[in-house]
Structure to design on (1031 residues):
């Protein structure tokens, strides 16, 4: 159904003359464009149900689609030693059925309604989403409210799914040298913080999970007080809210567990971790401890990341990729929306024949330059333009819009999205120098280096000549 | 947004005017306008004023299949070359200007065509278009920049060797397509890239980057009037020219063929595949439905159900038909721990066999159709997806009314259609198999290994500790068995009586207790119920030599 984006008026007006109408169409388009500066606070509707479930709604009628998302305030940071990866395991098990819906029926039902669904787990949250046509939005409401409350955990589904998660670990980490290094780096940079262990968990922990572990975890973390909904797209707020209240309203309240977790004490000396794996090229990553968006410095770091690696005229690309021809790729990544303080990450992949030490030196030079030389006006403005433009482009995707709202909500409050652009605009050259000096220091960093091992040469494996078979390496 | 009443009323009318409400069987597509310039450039334009930015994507009909032999990667480098400097500005200056606008300009290359894409905020559209036109019409392919780009490309190729999935894909395509233009990687090889010069890039550019060989798609915050006055005059300055005719011979390798690559990894990366179809093949829609049910439909697919859900053997498994202007490939791709490689391959082949033998169920057919039709709007729900889509519609000649036609094209597919295309396009006997794994751990470093390609009746896991199969022509070929008499051992359980007696995978059993064995049925009836106290004598052929094996209380080895 066509809907206006505004919930104020719904009356049909009297006919206007066609000419006047066209005039106003043009007028409106101009107005609409200038209005795009307005913040989300005015467009997003928030309410909290009696059972504690927060509901965040944003209408967007450019296409007959909706993204419906359920976010649970639980991630690997909520886990305990010996049972790491439990949040992610539970995410997998959430698809194994309820009293009403059989194992793996969930996705089949969504797909039969022309929708896509999936889920993802991070250190801070577990999120479930369905992207579906507007006229089928009741389907995910029904299914999600059902599995929030009535999940059935069976041994016969659990055992193969544990194996699936182990395969996932092999695919994503064990057989991916750079990813493996990243895991090592986190484990070295974070010691007391639960960011120490990977989201997917250690392999042995995964092997050891019991059904009881899952049941108690689900009980503890999967309740309305510890979750929120984000819905973005083509719906009418009043109608949607009715259905949401009906279905989710009946889920019993439960308790939101405390979320405070240990943070690492200040790191007072550089740490290094090496890993040797069969690989073609080396890899180097450097993680510096930084604050999240609760500190204004985090926005300065956003700008720093953009200056270093945003686009082909960025410092890393110009100097390391192009001029010095040291690396295939180099990146700087901030951690604005981490619930606990995260890391500012530099990464680089040396070109064949280049030494890691040389690359490290070049990265260090870039950091030192930021400390000693104020960034010029033009370069600073360029970085801000890049960030602002990305922010606009990102709103083209309903899914991404919802995700951004949700990530802000997890880290702090969804309203903090409206602080993003203004905070970016406020960053000065002095801020950049100050922040670089404060955080991007060797004593505060952990360096991870992948040392590539050459592939093992094997003796010729005997094969029958008549079988068309080739064995390589 | 707090807005005056009149604004809201008229915006409501405006929205009614611009978009139209969709019924469940009509797909809403933004209005698309098609124009053809005098120089034959096709322009497709779809407006969407919800956000203040514009996306422009130009398709050039010169992808990697147009690479001359020995210069694989030429189309890729030429596309990259557009951004390496023009007669007016250096690459550095262009990058600076683009970044300052917060815009992006990128090229991408595929087997059939390459694309040049601009994304820019509406307020900077004119400047963005200036840059777009400049890189498109005035590239100079400077020596030094070209050299750097080539080195980067070679490094990128080298880095791909760290991705076992990439390694598998390259081996597969090499094996399947042989010398056909689809056989080489789009970004070339370590051997071909050094041979490419800035002159060859320039020649490729002059040959293919002609308006009569291109399609332009524009979406976002740009009106028809702006396209007419702001865009068309710019593109009209491009000169049409003769384009080399496409020459393409589809030469597919006929299986069976197996390629094994050894890597010290924990998972076997497996591809099972064969010849596929082109986008223009009328069976495309039936194939889409069939593939969804087999392995393309995620959690609604059979492969995922059998291999992941039921047995936990894989995290990622799917099947797809890679369709291009010319016939591409069909692939089943999965990763599983090394030790499970054989089992996973067997199961995948079983599913290929099954969908060729029996019609799919009503539920499966219905689910496939519902998904393919219902999910269509999500193919075009961002500017980038929309421009991609428009280009594909034009390139493959689908017609701009394609969104209206699509539901009935899918709805009309029957169980018989699915069965027919499964039989026609799936080859459980003649496939190409690629395994990138720790070959020792996966048990694949022996010359003889097997796959289960027939149904449950033909296999037996016996208390003796062996699994046996009837010898099919394929197994015969694979295991180099001279005649198809007897049955073949495909697994030996550790510490079983057969293991103790020295039986091995690949052994062919010709007799049991001097009685000839022609099939698994014979085996079953002769063996009957095995008891520990029994002694049986098997005549076994291994690698051409026959000898007797005694299994039972007296242990003997060959």
């Amino acid at each position: 159904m066509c809907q206006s984006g505004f919930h104020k008026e719904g009356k049909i007006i009297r006919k206007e003359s066609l000419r006047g109408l066209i005039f106003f169409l043009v007028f409106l388009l101009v107005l609409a464009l200038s209005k795009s500066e307005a913040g989300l606070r005015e467009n997003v509707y928030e309410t909290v149900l009696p059972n504690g479930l927060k509901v965040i709604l944003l209408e967007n009628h450019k296409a007959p689609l909706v993204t419906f998302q359920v976010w649970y305030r639980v991630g690997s940071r909520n886990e305990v030693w010996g049972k790491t990866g439990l949040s992610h395991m539970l995410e997998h098990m959430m698809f194994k059925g309820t009293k009403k819906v059989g194992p793996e029926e969930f996705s089949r039902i969504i797909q039969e309604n022309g929708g896509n669904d999936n889920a993802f787990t991070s250190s801070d949250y577990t999120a479930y989403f369905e992207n579906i046509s507007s006229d089928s939005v009741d389907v995910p409401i029904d299914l999600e409210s059902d599995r929030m409350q009535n999940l059935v955990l069976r041994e016969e589904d659990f055992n193969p799914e544990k194996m699936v998660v182990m395969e996932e670990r092999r695919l994503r980490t064990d057989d991916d040298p750079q990813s493996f290094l990243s895991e090592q780096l986190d484990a070295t940079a974070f010691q007391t913080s639960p960011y120490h262990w990977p989201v997917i968990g250690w392999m042995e922990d995964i092997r050891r999970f019991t059904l009881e572990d899952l049941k108690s975890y689900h009980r503890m973390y999967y309740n309305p007080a510890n979750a929120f909904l984000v819905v973005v797209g083509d719906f009418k707020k009043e109608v949607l809210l009715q259905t949401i209240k009906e279905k989710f309203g009946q889920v019993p309240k439960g308790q939101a567990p405390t979320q405070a977790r240990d943070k690492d004490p200040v790191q007072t000396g550089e740490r290094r971790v090496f890993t040797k794996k069969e690989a073609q090229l080396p890899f180097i990553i450097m993680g510096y401890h930084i604050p999240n968006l609760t500190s204004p410095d985090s926005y300065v770091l956003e700008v720093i990341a953009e200056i270093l690696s945003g686009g082909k005229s960025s410092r890393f690309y110009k100097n390391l990729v192009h001029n010095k021809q040291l690396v295939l790729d180099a990146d700087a990544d901030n951690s604005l929306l981490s619930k606990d303080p995260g890391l500012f990450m530099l990464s680089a992949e040396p070109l064949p024949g280049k030494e890691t030490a040389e690359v490290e030196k070049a990265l260090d030079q870039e950091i030192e330059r930021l400390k000693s030389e104020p960034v010029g006006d033009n370069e600073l403005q360029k970085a801000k333009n890049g960030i602002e433009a990305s922010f606009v482009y990102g709103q083209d995707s309903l899914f991404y819009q919802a995700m951004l709202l949700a990530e802000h909500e997890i880290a702090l409050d969804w309203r903090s999205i409206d602080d993003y652009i203004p905070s970016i605009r406020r960053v000065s050259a002095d801020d950049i120098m100050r922040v670089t000096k404060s955080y991007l220091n060797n004593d505060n960093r952990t360096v991870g280096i992948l040392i590539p091992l050459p592939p093992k040469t094997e003796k010729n494996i005997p094969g029958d000549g008549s079988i068309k078979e080739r064995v390589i390496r | 947004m707090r807005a005056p009443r009149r604004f809201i009323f008229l915006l409501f009318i405006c929205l009614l005017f611009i978009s139209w409400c969709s019924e469940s069987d009509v797909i809403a597509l933004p209005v698309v306008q098609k124009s053809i310039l005098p120089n034959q450039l096709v322009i497709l334009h779809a407006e969407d004023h919800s956000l203040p930015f514009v996306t422009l994507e130009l398709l050039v009909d010169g992808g990697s299949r147009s690479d001359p032999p020995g210069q694989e990667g030429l189309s890729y480098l030429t596309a990259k070359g557009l951004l390496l400097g023009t007669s007016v500005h250096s690459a550095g200056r262009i990058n600076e200007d683009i970044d300052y606008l917060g815009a992006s300009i990128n090229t991408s290359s595929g087997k059939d065509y390459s694309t040049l894409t601009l994304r820019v905020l509406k307020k900077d559209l004119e400047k963005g278009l200036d840059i777009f036109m400049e890189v498109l019409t005035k590239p100079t392919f400077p020596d030094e920049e070209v050299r750097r780009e080539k080195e980067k490309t070679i490094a990128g190729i080298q880095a791909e060797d760290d991705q076992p999935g990439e390694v598998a894909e390259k081996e597969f395509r090499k094996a399947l397509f042989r010398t056909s233009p689809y056989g080489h990687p789009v970004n070339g090889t370590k051997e071909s890239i050094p041979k490419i010069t800035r002159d060859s890039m320039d020649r490729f550019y002059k040959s293919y980057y002609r308006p009569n060989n291109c399609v332009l798609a524009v979406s976002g915050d740009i009106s028809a009037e702006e396209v007419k006055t702001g865009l068309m005059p710019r593109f009209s300055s491009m000169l049409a020219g003769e384009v080399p005719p496409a020459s393409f011979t589809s030469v597919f390798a006929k299986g069976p063929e197996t390629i094994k690559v050894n890597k010290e990894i924990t998972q076997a990366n497996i591809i099972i595949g064969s010849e596929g179809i082109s986008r223009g093949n009328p069976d495309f829609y039936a194939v889409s439905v069939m593939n969804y049910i087999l392995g393309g439909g995620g959690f609604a697919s059979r492969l995922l159900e059998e291999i992941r859900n039921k047995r936990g053997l894989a995290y990622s498994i799917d099947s797809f038909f890679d369709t291009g202007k010319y016939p591409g490939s069909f692939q089943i791709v999965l990763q599983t721990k090394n030790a499970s490689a054989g089992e996973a391959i067997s199961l995948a082949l079983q599913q290929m066999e099954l969908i060729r033998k029996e019609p799919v169920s009503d539920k499966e057919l219905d689910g496939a159709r519902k998904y393919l039709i219902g999910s269509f709007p999500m193919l075009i729900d961002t500017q980038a997806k929309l421009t991609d889509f428009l280009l594909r519609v034009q390139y493959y000649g689908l017609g701009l009314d394609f969104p209206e036609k699509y539901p009935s094209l899918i709805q009309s597919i029957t169980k018989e259609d699915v069965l027919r295309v499964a039989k026609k396009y799936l080859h459980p006997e003649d496939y190409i198999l690629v395994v990138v794994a720790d070959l020792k751990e996966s048990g694949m470093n022996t010359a003889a290994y097997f796959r289960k390609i027939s149904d449950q009746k033909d296999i037996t896991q016996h208390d003796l500790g062996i699994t046996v199969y009837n010898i099919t022509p394929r197994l015969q070929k694979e295991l180099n068995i001279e005649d198809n008499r007897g049955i073949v051992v495909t697994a030996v359980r550790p510490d079983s009586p057969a293991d103790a007696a020295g039986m091995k995978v690949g052994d062919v059993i010709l007799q049991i207790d001097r009685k000839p064995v022609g099939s698994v049925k014979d085996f079953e009836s002769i063996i009957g119920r095995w008891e520990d106290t029994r002694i049986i004598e098997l005549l076994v052929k291994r690698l051409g030599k026959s000898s007797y094996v005694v299994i039972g209380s007296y242990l003997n080895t060959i």
Q: What stands out?
A: Residues 143-160 of chain B form the longest helix (18 residues).
